[in-house]
Write a sequence for this structure.
């Protein structure tokens, strides 16, 4: 039910109708027409009679090899092209979907690593360096470095979360309802 697929399915329905229309040209065609023409006086002032004509037309396709066959072949070729386009789109969407699933799994692993291991370790290291500094056994530069490393790890974790949401949005795009 993806909009791009629905659009191609509608295009396919149109080309199928084009095949039906091309095949209609093999059948004989009938037509009736009627015309009425009012004719006023001539420039010399003489009355002229009005004109009425009725016609019946009958079109019989006798030489189908030249015109009708080529039109049907053309309509079938257009239909085949749209079917191929739809198949290509579906394959492309499936490939993108699978690639995004792989990316999402990798981001989930990274998120888990950051939440379970890296962020707690960085926090503990920053607290340890601050504790050492307050006990006069550590250096202030080490406290700053450890806090910067902790903040950088938090920023990396946020970037992972943002990337996950982007991938989830792309995955939702593949299942968009009309």
């Amino acid at each position: 039910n993806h909009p791009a697929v629905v659009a191609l399915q509608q295009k396919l329905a149109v080309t199928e109708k084009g095949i039906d229309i091309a095949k209609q040209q093999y059948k004989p065609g009938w037509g009736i027409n009627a015309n009425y023409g009012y004719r006023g006086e001539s420039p010399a002032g003489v009355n002229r009679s009005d004109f009425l004509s009725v016609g019946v037309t009958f079109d019989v396709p006798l030489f189908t090899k030249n015109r009708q066959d080529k039109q049907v072949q053309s309509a079938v070729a257009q239909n085949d092209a749209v079917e191929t386009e739809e198949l290509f789109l579906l394959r492309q969407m499936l490939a993108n979907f699978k690639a995004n699933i792989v990316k999402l799994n990798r981001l989930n692993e990274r998120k888990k690593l950051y939440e379970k291991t890296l962020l707690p370790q960085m926090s503990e290291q920053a607290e340890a360096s601050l504790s050492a500094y307050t006990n006069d056994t550590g250096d202030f530069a080490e406290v700053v470095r450890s806090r910067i490393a902790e903040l950088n790890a938090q920023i990396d974790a946020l970037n992972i979360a943002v990337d996950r949401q982007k991938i989830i949005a792309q995955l939702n795009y593949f299942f968009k309802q009309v």
About this structure: The mean pLDDT is 89. Strands lie at 29-37, 51-59. The chain has one domain: 3-174. The helical segments are 3-24, 68-134, 140-174.
